[in-house]
């Protein structure tokens, strides 16, 4: 399962590194390249809940295999994109299909891991699962830089051997499928895909369309309204796509809230830290990827500790400690962002990663343990949808902060060099879009006086960009602080026995029997009682 999901994490970041080469060879526009990146994340977020529910009904192993095949075939076709007018459409379509394959594969693979391990060993198992698979997001830029030196097409073809290993190991493992005799809620699947897709699209395009654009708010508000209709429908159908009563469990609701605010920082930080390293620290793409490894090392080591804390003491202590450490790490990192030194920053980068590593597996595992009637695919679909939605919101909000602060500070820098206010503002917008997007970060070309002034001021502009990133990292610290507050509402109960479904009294009716002991009490005595 780790081999399977590793592809989905790596592909979230690997394309960004190869973007300049893809644009140059295929002649794509900057907005077209943005769609190549976003198409994957958009379909991934839109179909996660559908993938989880389908895995419960058809069987976790079957859907994991189908998702892997869809993903790897799409990857091969992405790498085989022809040159010419069809290139952009080709890449966007098959990147979207990649995201759909990942949405089928990931919840099914995670459900297999959950079903295999008993609840008393599940914390450590999922800590390893989330620690390694989540950390692979940092490997994407490093692997992408190395493969792009050969050919950018290899960033897609590299998934083929990984997928083959995953499929062979799956066959060797003899995993048993336990399909459920329930109907798939097709109207619900359509509504949640449209709702998630529209809202995520609005957040993703906010930096391009602007927060004042009717298109941005039309997508966001329209998506939310569709999701409201979806919730009303789910309360009425016999076999809903998502059983909303799971949110009546206060612990599950708190787990979801902690995951949401933590993911506002976790996924976006890989993008922002990579660009910050390349622009402000003058690092190469490979050096920037190594900078991200500090985050990964802290994350991977702490995730193992978080799993052990969960198994012994429950999710609440791990979430409180992780959110506190994460908030402190991001705040200290922000305070050092303008020092422009990797050497001075790495302890705080690792501390920020450690905080998220401590909380991610406990919050996710505790939520999964509270699955209704052992519907692990369904609940993983819910939690992963929350995580992907939060990542989209974080990228949009922090991207807006980065662009606005960079524009304001570069405008002041250029005005201090004698550039008129209007021209300074226009040039600053161009610089902000270049250093925070897919454009070349080496500075503008051309022989005009303003362009020469910008090039001559690049040292000051790098500091301006570092100051803008400082506010981004402070925002991430604030998100972790809110997650810390949310963690205090967790009741502290623990799932000490695997949820088991009883024979339903009617279609769609399920019960959960699980022993839960309050934190601080003797689980053994509770079990014997």
Walk me through what this model shows:
The protein folds into three domains: 181 residues, Growth Hormone, Chain: A; 56 residues; 247 residues, Up-down Bundle (Growth Hormone, Chain: A), CATH 1.20.1250. Helix 1 runs antiparallel to helix 4, helix 2 runs antiparallel to helix 3 and helix 3 packs antiparallel against helix 7. The protein is mostly helical and 529 residues long. It is built from 19 helices and four strands. The strands form two sheets. It has a two-stranded antiparallel ribbon with strand order 1-4. Helix content is 77%, strand content 2%.
What's the layout of helices and strands?
Layout: H1 2-26, H2 30-58, H3 60-79, H4 87-116, H5 119-148, H6 154-157, H7 159-173, H8 186-204, H9 206-209, H10 214-234, H11 250-279, H12 285-313, H13 315-336, H14 342-369, H15 376-416, H16 421-436, H17 449-456, H18 458-487, E1 493-495, E2 500-501, E3 512-513, E4 516-518, H19 523-528
Antiparallel strand pairs: 1-4, 2-3
Helix pairs in contact: 1-2, 1-4, 1-5, 1-7, 2-3, 2-4, 2-8, 2-15, 3-4, 3-7, 4-15, 5-12, 5-14, 8-10, 8-15, 11-12, 11-14, 11-15, 11-18, 12-13, 12-14, 13-14, 13-18, 14-15, 15-16, 15-18
Question: What key attributes describe this structure?
Answer:
529 residues; mainly alpha; Growth Hormone, Chain: A; 3 domains; two-stranded antiparallel sheet; 4 strands; globular; disordered C terminus
């Amino acid at each position: 399962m780790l081999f399977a999901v590793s592809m989905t994490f790596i592909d979230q970041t690997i394309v960004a590194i190869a973007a300049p080469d893809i644009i140059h060879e295929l002649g794509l526009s900057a907005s077209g390249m943005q769609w190549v990146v976003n198409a994957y994340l958009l379909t991934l977020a839109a179909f996660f809940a559908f993938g989880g529910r389908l895995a419960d009904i058809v069987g976790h192993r079957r859907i994991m295999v189908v998702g892997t095949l869809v993903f790897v075939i799409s990857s091969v076709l992405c790498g085989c994109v022809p040159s010419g007018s069809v290139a952009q459409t080709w890449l966007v379509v098959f990147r979207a299909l990649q995201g759909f394959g990942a949405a089928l594969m990931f919840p099914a693979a995670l459900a297999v891991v959950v079903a295999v391990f008993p609840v008393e060993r599940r914390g450590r198992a999922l800590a390893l699962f989330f620690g390694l698979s989540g950390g692979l997001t940092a490997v994407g830029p490093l692997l992408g830089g190395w493969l792009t030196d050969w050919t950018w097409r290899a960033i897609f073809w590299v998934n083929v051997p990984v997928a083959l290993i995953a499929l062979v190991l799956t066959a060797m493992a003899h995993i048993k499928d336990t399909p459920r005799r329930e109907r798939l809620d097709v109207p619900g699947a359509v509504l949640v895909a449209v709702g998630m897709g529209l809202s995520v699209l609005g957040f993703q395009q906010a930096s391009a369309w602007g927060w004042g654009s009717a298109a941005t708010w039309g997508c966001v508000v329209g998506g939310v309204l569709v999701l409201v209709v979806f919730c009303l429908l789910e309360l009425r159908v016999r076999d809903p796509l998502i059983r909303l009563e799971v949110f009546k469990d206060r612990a599950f609701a708190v787990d979801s809230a902690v995951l949401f605010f933590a993911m506002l920082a976790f996924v976006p930080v890989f993008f922002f830290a990579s660009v910050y390293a390349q622009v402000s620290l003058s690092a190469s793409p490979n050096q920037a990827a190594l900078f991200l490894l500090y985050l990964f090392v802290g994350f991977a080591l702490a995730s193992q500790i978080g799993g052990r804390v969960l198994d012994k003491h429950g999710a609440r202590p791990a979430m409180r400690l992780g959110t506190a450490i994460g908030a402190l790490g991001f705040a200290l990192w922000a305070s050092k962002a303008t020092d422009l030194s990797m050497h001075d920053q790495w302890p705080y980068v690792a501390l920020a990663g450690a905080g998220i590593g401590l909380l991610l597996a406990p919050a996710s595992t505790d939520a999964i343990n509270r699955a209704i009637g052992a519907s692990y695919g369904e609940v993983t679909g819910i939690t992963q949808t929350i995580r992907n939605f939060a990542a989209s919101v974080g990228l949009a909000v922090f991207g807006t902060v980065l662009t606005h602060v960079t524009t304001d500070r570069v405008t002041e820098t250029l005005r201090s060099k004698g550039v008129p206010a209007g021209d300074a503002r226009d040039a600053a917008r161009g610089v902000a879009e270049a250093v925070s997007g897919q454009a070349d970060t080496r500075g503008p070309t051309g022989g005009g006086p303003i362009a020469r002034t910008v090039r001559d001021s690049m040292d000051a502009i790098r500091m301006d960009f570092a100051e803008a990133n400082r506010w981004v990292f402070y925002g991430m610290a604030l998100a972790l602080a809110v997650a810390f507050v949310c963690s205090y509402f967790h009741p502290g109960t623990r799932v000490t026995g695997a949820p088991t479904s009883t024979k339903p009294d009617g279609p769609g009716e399920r019960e959960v029997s699980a022993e839960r002991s309050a934190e601080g009490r003797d689980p053994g005595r509770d079990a014997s009682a």
